[in-house]
Structures are given as C-alpha cells and as structure tokens.
Amino acid sequence: MPLPGSNGQSQQQHVYSREYAESLDLQDPLRHMSREFLIPSKDELKAENFDQVESRNSTLPASESSVYLCGNSLGLQPRLTSTRIQQYLTTWATQGVFGHFKRLSESPLPTWLHVDGCASDNIIPIVGALPSEVAVMETLTANLHLLMSSFYTPDINGRHKIIIESKAFPSDHYAVESQILHHGLSPRTSMITIEPPDLSVPVLTTSYILSVIAEHAATTAILLLPGIQFYTGQYFDIPTITKAAREAGMFVIWDLAHAVGNVPLQLHDWDVDAAAWCSYKYLNAGPGAIGGMFIHERHSQVSSRSSEGFVNRLSGWWGSDKESRFAMENHFVPIPGAAGFQLSNPSVLDITSLNASLEVFKKAGGMAPLRERSLKLTAYLESVLHSSPFFNAGFKIITPSDPRQRGAQLSLRLGPGLLDVVVKELEKRSVVVDERRPDVIRVAPAPLYNTFKDVFEFRRAFDEALEVAQKAKAGLIQAQGTTEQQKTS
Ligand SMILES: Cc1ncc(COP(=O)(O)O)c(C=O)c1O
C-alpha cells in the first residue's frame, strides 16, 4: 500500500521523520482510540517495586509513554476495563448470588446468567458469524481439544489424518498429537505437517497448501491451520483453503489467535467448519482471559432430545438447555448452536473484561475501519524499515509484502548473533516488541491503539539497537580472533 510521498530516496527520508508520522496521525480518523488504553510509561516499565506503579492515576495519560508494539502477544488494557470490573465487583458485593438473575436498572452489565450470551453477541461482528455460531468459553487449546473431541472420529482404513503446518504453535501441535494418540493411532502415520518448501522463506503459498490437501484428500479427517501464522505473520487465504479442504471431505478448523480483532473475518460466509481463538492478544481482555469458538450452524443442530439428535461432545451443564438447566434431571439436551458445547459456568470476571474491550471495538466502528487503519500503519512500518540503513544488511522482513497476506504484524529476521543485544537495547529505550529465538522479532502496530508516531519511534530505536548489536558482534569476533591467535602462537 503506497504512502503519500513514499517514492524515491529523498521522499523516503521525508517519510521517515517525526513530522511526517505526526501528520499521518493528524489525518487519522481513529487517532483518538489510543486514549482509550493504558499505555505503560517508560518509568513504569523500568519499575522493580509494586509501590512504584501502584499509585498510577489511570485517568491521566502516562507522562512519557513506552512504544508498545506487542499487542500480538498481549493486548493493552482498555481504560474501561477497570470501571466495568469495579461495577462487577460492586454487583457481587451488594447482591451476592442474586447477581446471577437480578438486573439492577442503570447497570451497564448483564446478569451473570446471560453474560456469556452477551459476550457472544459482541463478538459476532468481529468473526462474521450467525448468532448461534459463537460461544465465548474456556481457552484456546481447550477449545481446540473440545472441537476435535466432537469432530475427529478417525477411521484408520479411511480418514484418520490431521493436517497442520510444521511450524504450528506448539500448543496446537501437542493438541493434535495427543488427539491422535487418544484414538490409539500414531502421529507418525496420522499427523501430516506442512513443511515450507524453502526453509529460508518460511511462508506457505496457497497453491502449496492446496497441493498437500490434494495429496492427502482421501485419508484426512481434519485440517487445522492458523488464520494468521504466529511466527511469520502470514494471513492465510481462509476462504480458498477452506473450500478446497471441504470439497476434499475434510473438517476445517482455524486457530484464530492472531487473526481475531486484527483482521475482519467472515467465518460463516467462508463456510468454515469451526474455529477457536483467545482474547488476550488483539481483543485486549487480559492475560489468559476466556477464549471463544465458532461452529458452523450445520454442525450444531439439535433435531431431537435423544443423543442421536445431535453431535456427541464432551459435555457439561452449561451447554445444556437453559430451561431445564436448574432442574437437575441428569438429561443432557444441548442448546442448539455453539453454546451447546459449553462446559462450565464461565468466569464473569473474565467476560466482564472481554466485554469492556468489545465496547471499545464498537466505539471504533468495528473491524472495517480498523482494518483500513491497520493497513496504513503496517504499510508505514514496512516503508520506514525499507529505508533503514540496516535493511537487508542487519535484518530482513519475513512477513509477506502483499498486504492481503498479512495482518498488523511484521516479523523481522535479524542477522546471526544480533538478537540478544537488539532486544536488550530496545528494552532500554522502552520499546516493547517480542522475540522468537534464535533471530526473529515480531513488531505489531495494533489496529486499535498504536500510532504512526509509535512506528517512527520504533524505527529510530531499532536502528540504534542494530548499530550497538553490530558493534558488539564485531568486537566479539575481533576478541575471538585474538584469542585464537594467542592459542596458536
Ligand atoms: C497460534 C496460537 N495457538 C495457540 C496458543 C495457545 O493459547 P492458550 O494458551 O490460550 O491455549 C497461542 C498462544 O499464544 C497461539 O498464539
């Protein structure tokens, strides 16, 4: 995506300037959204003692903010979160068990009995689902297991394989491996891992994925892929891959950890079978907060009260029909839709936090304007990185350059031996990104709260960090050379 004035070398210099970044912020219709979040200040990040941070006045902007580009790992806290959580605590303190059923007028919070449904309603536009297709529940890996426990019924003489990518997030890998073992099968024969044909370019093209699907068409039960790959930031072509895999008779599950709240999704229209996500990254619900899942309506119908009338599942009382839930009759009849896959009554504390963040998404106008903003922010990041003197000398961008094939994040592969010093130097400058050993940092301007100025500040700190790291490396090589010489002489 070209930026205004981004052609030619002198223009590149112009683009990489604080004034230019600030002018982009001024033109940004969503520039006010960053004020909705608590951005750690530089001093706060350096604090060692809780007393130093406890007195933070959350109604004022922090004096000197850090540059936080790590929403792909943990999203920042919306200011609204503490208000809503305090309201939840007040309800609990003053109403006790009645909070389950009694709605206090003027309260912005739903009753606890309906809190999960309220969160699902809020998340439906973010994932593009019908109301019955989403449940806010459990956590990501647990939900992947729950999905596979219902929809992975392998037949060693027919469909028994699960296809994932070789660089899948370890939790997905473990989940798949253990599901296969759980059915008495071997991952050696039943788990197919898609390996990038060229390991130096770790992205997987759609045509390559389709060729793996075709190769294992007759024997694969499940295809499990990430919407956005955690390491490279590659955004897969969900509709095309889903169509091919479904036509080949597979059940298609997407892990949307890095996609939800990052890019607009249309899971129902894309005919996805199922998906699961967490809410602590771009959804900003807080560390380890409740996750969610999507199940296409075709898989969650309840045609009769007998167990033949619905897909079998690992069940719990919260998935059972709301009318008879408290009758304690020991007769499980699932709620039609994804909600029928719930197990326990959910953490209201978690959902209150998630709903607070989803209110902020609504305030921003939803995913369409956020994606528009995100495309510009990430294009700006790419553009200032291209003009860095270290580009292709000290680092490469491994995320696809086609904006349709990526979300907010760019993954940067550093030259050998630079990572430790670069990370330390960025930290010294209060620039927060995350590292994937041995040589990658991931930089994610979050669509909701990062600014063009953050991107400019990152480039400045990154150049400085690379310079220190290259000098340190050269010094080390020189020192090693001297030692070798001393050894041989
Ligand atoms: C792609 C992906 N899958 C799975 C997980 C594991 O999530 P959880 O610990 O919430 O189960 C993560 C966590 O970051 C992830 O990024």
UniProtKB/TrEMBL annotation:
Keywords of this entry: Cytoplasm, Hydrolase, Pyridine nucleotide biosynthesis, Pyridoxal phosphate
Q: Which InterPro entries match?
A: Kynureninase, PyrdxlP-dep_Trfase, PyrdxlP-dep_Trfase_major, PyrdxlP-dep_Trfase_small
Q: What is its cofactor?
A: pyridoxal 5'-phosphate
Identify the main location.
cytoplasm
PANTHER family, alphabetized: KYNURENINASE
State the pathway, as annotated in the record: Amino-acid degradation; L-kynurenine degradation; L-alanine and anthranilate from L-kynurenine: step 1/1; Cofactor biosynthesis; NAD(+) biosynthesis; quinolinate from L-kynurenine: step 2/3
EC numbers for this chain: 3.7.1.3
What the record says about family reads: Belongs to the kynureninase family.
What organism does this protein naturally occur in? Hyphodiscus hymeniophilus
GO molecular-function term, one example from the UniProt record: pyridoxal phosphate binding
Q: What does this protein do?
A: Catalyzes the cleavage of L-kynurenine (L-Kyn) and L-3-hydroxykynurenine (L-3OHKyn) into anthranilic acid (AA) and 3-hydroxyanthranilic acid (3-OHAA), respectively.
Recorded catalytic reaction(s): these are: 3-hydroxy-L-kynurenine + H2O = 3-hydroxyanthranilate + L-alanine + H(+); L-kynurenine + H2O = anthranilate + L-alanine + H(+)
Going by the record, the broad EC class of this enzyme is hydrolase
Compartments in which it is found = Cytoplasm
Record-annotated residues binding pyridoxal 5'-phosphate? 140-141, 169-172, 255, 258, 280, 317, 345
Q: Name one GO biological process term.
A: L-kynurenine catabolic process
What's a Pfam family in this record? KYNU_C
Family annotation (SUPFAM superfamilies): PLP-dependent transferases
How does this chain assemble? Homodimer.
Q: Which residues carry this modification: N6-(pyridoxal phosphate)lysine?
A: 281
Q: Name one GO cellular component term.
A: cytoplasm
Question: Is this entry keyworded Nucleotidyltransferase?
Answer: no
Please report the name of this protein according to its UniProt entry: Kynureninase
